[in-house]
Amino acid sequence: MTILEERPQLPFEAHEPSLMEIVPGPRPRGIVKFVTSTDHKQIGLNYLFTALTGFLLAGLMALVMRTQLIVPNNHFVTENVYNEMFTIHGTIMLFVFAGPFAFAGFGNYMIPLMIGAPDMAFPRFNNLSYWLYLGGFSLLLAGFLTNNGAAQFGWFGYAPLTEAIHSPGPGADLWIVGIGLTGLSGIFTAVNIITTVFTLRAPGMVMFRMPIFVWNILVTMFLILLAFPVLTAAMALLWIDRHLGGGFYDASKGGQPILWQNLFWFFGHPEVYIIAVPYFGVATEIISTMSRKPVFGYKGMIAATLSIGALSMGVWAHHMYTTGAVLLPFFAAMSLLIAVPTGIKFFNWIGTMWRGTIVLNTAMLFCLGFLAIFLFGGITGVILAQPVLDFQVHNTYFVVAHFHYVLIGAVMAGFGGLYYWLPKMTGRKLSEKWGKLGFALLFIGFNLTFFPQHDLGLRGMPRRIETYNAGMGWNFLNELSSIGAYITALGVLVNVWNIFTSWRNGEIAGDNPWDGQTLEWACSSPPPDHNFEALPPIRSERPVWDANHPDMLTKVGH
Ligand code: HEM
Ligand SMILES: [Cu+2]
Q1: Does the CB atom of residue 447 touch ligand 1 within 6 A?
Q2: C-alpha torsion sign, points 122, 525, 214, 134
């Protein structure tokens, strides 16, 4: 049937309110804004602030541990307290700080700006995600207030140690629910970001013109969708075991403790990339801007990220070599394969800097720090991926050194991101003088803390011990490591102080302080509620550069 009549004009259609119409009246401020805002920028800031708080608290716990270990036979804290410390330190660092800082903090703030969107696809859902995350963080901390204290079984909570009989009391339950809530929050954020990227890109912003940071977050969000539900399920089963008489992980009831390890690491290995891949994106943006060049091998970079994502789903059992329950050659081969796309990325980063006019400011220094530290962690990773070698150093300080190199490599890029993007968020630059000092302290302190731990591992010092005897040959290296931790802490303080003072008194940044290339530099600093007054034409992956340097247009090969 064909309708011949004109569609009747309804009166309200004439001035249908535009999506971004400014609501008149006073805007919420301060705490009310913090609680109620659905603006992706405010929510991004909430995440950044909360994650940094987590970093500081977990850092304090690290200092407690390193103080305990500075001399042999020390009694600074008891064994139980030491166990609580490494469990909650690890859990907060991973679930509250390192992951959400990048994918939810920078991700929320930057993705709509980078693709020319007014906000996220589901702003209220976004607000809910933040509150779930804050709730999870609070529950993890609440464990310390209970009679038996917080959980003490390590961040990967191996069965059967987590069963009610071995870990009685609410500390372990708070840990389960706390992780569950941050996991739900991550899943919701993933749904939100994926929808935003697929549906809200500005005209001209085709997928292959999106900044690498957006691509990396997109891949990360798919990894979250694949991995986090498995973690939630594992936690739910554990809860049933503890409270409803289940026996999933309890051999005496016909269950299998190794089931926990499989479920946990099926999540836990991708988690490493859920943490790292967004920081790869941050580093790529900074390196390209500060080298004043487009990203070298843009599509190769995206392909490498996609294959890292895919491979990372198939290597979980390299955490379980010594259980005797896994097919060693398969998991070793898969693990080694991941070095290939990661290597491609390193070549692309170097290629981006190659013959560039490099601006060696604090943000860029942090990226160079990231390259060096992450590379080193990657190399010890290749060592650990060989079963014959892993059997020697499994559960020693060699492993502690390895994963801190990987994770703190990522954190370096995160600090770089703060120096790079805070001017957009606050309108003010951070002090370069304090920034460089903060970088130097962090870089030196970090290496002093963790480099000696490789040797400690080779000398047989097991991880997760609260003290050791004097005659083991471990004294000097532990002393170095603890001194390094204090220097690292000083470096963190200098950077945090710089952030807060520059927020008020820093040099005014202007819209585009770094001669940036991607869309976030086209709006004012900080951006208005609706983000953009006008968009430059988007004809390549660096529209702002093309608009500002018409003589040096990006060659578009696609
Ligand atoms: C910056 C200074 C840091 C210091 C001094 C530090 C120190 C420590 C210490 C002493 C342990 C316990 C080792 C043991 O007894 O086995 C530990 C464990 C751990 N740390 Fe850190 N850490 C730092 C930063 C980080 C960061 C940034 C992350 C993650 C992003 C992280 C993640 C972990 C994890 C996952 C564990 C394992 C916990 C467990 O065994 O269950 N750490 N750290
Ligand atoms: Cu792994």
Answers
A1: no
A2: negative
CATH for 44-552 is 1.20.210.10
Atom 39 of ligand 1, nearest CA residue:
154
Calculate how far, in angstroms, residue 154's C-alpha sits from the geometric centre of ligand 1. 11
Which atom of ligand 1 approaches the CA of 485 most closely?
Answer: 5
Tell me the whole-structure pTM to 2 decimals: 0.93
Regions in the chain scoring below 70 on pLDDT: 1-25, 556-558
Distance from C-alpha of 300 to C-alpha of 425, rounded to nearest angstrom:
30
- Mind listing the pLDDT tens digit for each residue in 91-145? 999 999 999 999 999 999 999 999 999 999 999 999 999 999 999 999 999 999 9
- For residue 323, the model assigns a pLDDT of 94
Closest-lying ligand 1 atom to the alpha carbon of residue 91: 35
Cβ-based burial of 53 (10 A; exposed 0-12, middle 13-18, buried ≥19) = middle
Per residue, the 3-state secondary structure of 406-422, as one string, reads HHHHHHHHHHHHHHHHH
CB of 235 within 6 A of ligand 1: the answer is: no
Tell whether ligand 1 has an atom less than 6 A from the beta carbon of residue 411.
yes
- ω before 528 within 30° of 0 (cis)? no
Q: Where are the domains of the chain?
A: 44-552
Q: Which neighbouring-strand residues pair with 508?
A: 428
Q: How far apart are CA 247 and CA 238, in angstroms?
A: 9
Task: Pick from 55, 68, 89 the residue to mutate for probing ligand 1's pocket: most ligand atoms within 8 Å of its CB.
Answer: 89
Ligand 1 pocket mutation pick from 86, 95, 454 by most atoms within 8 angstroms of CB: 86
Report pLDDT digits (tens) over 8-32.
444 444 444 455 555 566 777 888 8
Residues with Cβ < 8 Å from 279, sequence gap 6 or more?
Answer: 102, 370, 409, 410, 411, 413, 414, 417
Whole-number pLDDT of residue 198: 98
3 state SS of 428: strand
Helix/strand/coil for 211: coil
Distance of CA 176 from the midpoint of ligand 1 (Å): 20
